[in-house]
């Protein structure tokens, strides 16, 4: 059963008349109303919906039945009828009862923020692992919802069905079948995670440092990835342009090879189902030697976006001591740099002010992945970061350790001290701390005091 191939002619998704409601609950400081609306519109556009109107309003006391008050419901009903709305998006989390009640009142399909994000992920997943992860997250979300969104007999549209579609004749509350499917997906993901773990161990045994790009969705990570690698993978001005992680080799000054990893973008209130399902993928960040946090510094909510990213990283197991301190892993120190991207969109005064701020913090850089501004300097700084804390150790290489000696020449500084009559080479080796760990993993029969 395929649930990923959405037909281009599916009128229930592409071009569907959409009405967006952005209820702002008491104490919700996530973003300003204008920012909330723009992000909600961006999420809707990501799956080709035609936005007819978008309204934000405050909700002092959430209604247990509909989340929003009766007056807002009435106003929405009038707008829906007047504009022949097909889909209503509520930019907040709805309970199953609230979603059902709103659908009954609006006489149209209703999806909340979680369902919308899951729908986007369902469209964008490209790898087998990504598809398994998104489907598991979808089913977890759907398990308690009696909405027209999951069937095992007839499906005539793609995505994950939050937007409905023809042919859905099986009752969606068939929880037994959902649980069985979830159990199967978890078994398949366990195998995938086992394979990913083996791949990670192989990379750790390899001599190459790993750099992970993280950031809010549409911050410019993929554009930076393309700039640094010379590749031409999808990078677009849209939310969640990248879903499946990408890796590539790059060369830096003084380092023959570095692995650069581009991860899925984060977003405020990222569904917990997705964090859980994508944990194996996101945990690649925990094994990086350097984390580059790419921020859209031109965005009016850039600081809140930073907080959202750090919140997700915390859920993955990274300890964040404070807003201006490095992120520290539970297992090892992982240095992090903030890249203030899209400086080309700033006016001269704002750019000058930020340039002054950046000059006072060695862990922040002002760049434009789009036009290349600051990229050459960034490359040099990254290289310096990876080479920081280099240590010198004296090692005796036996004749059978020629590969280890050659590796040392390629990745560090080598000073040969002596060669004895048996062919043993004594040398002083200077390597970054991260590479000493990889040396020990790769050449386990050579004693190294880490």
From TrEMBL:
Its cofactor is Mg(2+). Signal peptide: none annotated. Transmembrane segments: none annotated. It comes from the Bacteria. Pfam families: GTP-bdg_M (PF16360), GTP-bdg_N (PF13167), HflX_C (PF19275), MMR_HSR1 (PF01926). Mg(2+) binds at residues 222, 242. One of its GO terms (cellular component) is cytoplasm. GTP binds at residues 215-222, 240-244, 262-265, 341-344, 368-370. It is found in: Cytoplasm. Its main location: cytoplasm. Residues 209-390 form the Hflx-type G domain. Keywords: Cytoplasm, GTP-binding, Magnesium, Metal-binding, Nucleotide-binding. CDD domains: HflX. PANTHER family: GTP-BINDING PROTEIN 6-RELATED, GTP-BINDING PROTEIN HFLX. NCBIfam families: GTP_HflX. Monomer. Associates with the 50S ribosomal subunit. GTPase that associates with the 50S ribosomal subunit and may have a role during protein synthesis or ribosome biogenesis. Belongs to the TRAFAC class OBG-HflX-like GTPase superfamily. HflX GTPase family. This is GTPase HflX. It comes from Sphingorhabdus lutea. The lineage of its organism: Bacteria, Pseudomonadati, Pseudomonadota, Alphaproteobacteria, Sphingomonadales.
């Amino acid at each position: 059963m395929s649930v990923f191939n959405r037909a281009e002619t599916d009128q229930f998704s592409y071009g569907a008349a959409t009405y967006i409601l952005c209820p702002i609950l008491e104490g919700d400081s996530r973003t300003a109303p204008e920012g909330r609306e723009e992000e909600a519109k961006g999420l809707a556009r990501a799956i080709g919906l035609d936005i007819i109107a978008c309204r934000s309003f405050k909700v002092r006391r959430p209604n247990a039945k509909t989340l929003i008050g009766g007056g807002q419901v009435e106003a929405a009903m009038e707008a829906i009828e007047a504009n022949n709305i097909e889909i209503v998006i509520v930019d907040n989390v709805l309970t199953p009862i609230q979603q059902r009640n709103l659908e009954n009142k609006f006489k149209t399909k209703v999806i909340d923020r979680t369902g919308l994000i899951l729908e986007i992920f369902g469209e964008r997943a490209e790898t087998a692992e990504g598809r398994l992860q998104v489907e598991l997250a979808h089913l977890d979300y759907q398990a308690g919802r009696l909405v027209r969104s999951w069937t095992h007999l007839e499906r005539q549209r793609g995505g994950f069905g939050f937007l409905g579609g023809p042919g859905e004749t099986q009752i969606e509350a068939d929880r037994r079948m959902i649980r069985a499917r979830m159990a199967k997906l978890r078994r398949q993901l366990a195998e995938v995670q086992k394979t990913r773990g083996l791949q990670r161990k192989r990379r750790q045994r390899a001599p190459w440092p790993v750099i992970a790009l993280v950031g809010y969705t549409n911050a410019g990570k993929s554009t930076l990835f393309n700039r640094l690698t010379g590749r031409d993978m999808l990078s677009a001005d849209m939310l969640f342009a990248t879903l499946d992680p990408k890796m590539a080799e790059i060369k830096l000054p003084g380092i023959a090879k570095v692995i650069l990893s581009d991860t899925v973008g984060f977003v405020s209130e990222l569904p917990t189902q997705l964090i859980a399902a994508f944990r194996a993928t996101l945990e690649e960040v925990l094994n990086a030697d350097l984390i580059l946090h790419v921020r859209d510094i031109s965005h009016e909510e850039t600081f809140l976006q930073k907080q959202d990213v750090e919140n997700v990283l915390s859920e993955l197991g990274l300890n964040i001591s404070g807003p201006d301190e490095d992120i520290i892993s539970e297992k090892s120190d992982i240095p992090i740099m903030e890249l203030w991207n899209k400086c080309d969109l700033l006016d001269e005064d704002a750019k000058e002010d930020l340039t002054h701020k950046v000059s006072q913090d060695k862990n922040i850089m002002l760049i434009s992945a789009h036009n290349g501004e600051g990229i050459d300097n960034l490359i040099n700084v990254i290289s310096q970061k990876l080479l920081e804390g280099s240590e010198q150790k004296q090692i005796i290489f036996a004749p059978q350790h020629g590969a280890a000696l050659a590796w040392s020449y390629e990745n560090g500084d080598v000073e040969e001290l002596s060669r004895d009559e048996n062919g043993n080479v004594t040398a002083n080796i200077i390597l970054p701390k991260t590479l000493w760990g990889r040396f020990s993993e790769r050449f386990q029969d050579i004693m190294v005091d880490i």
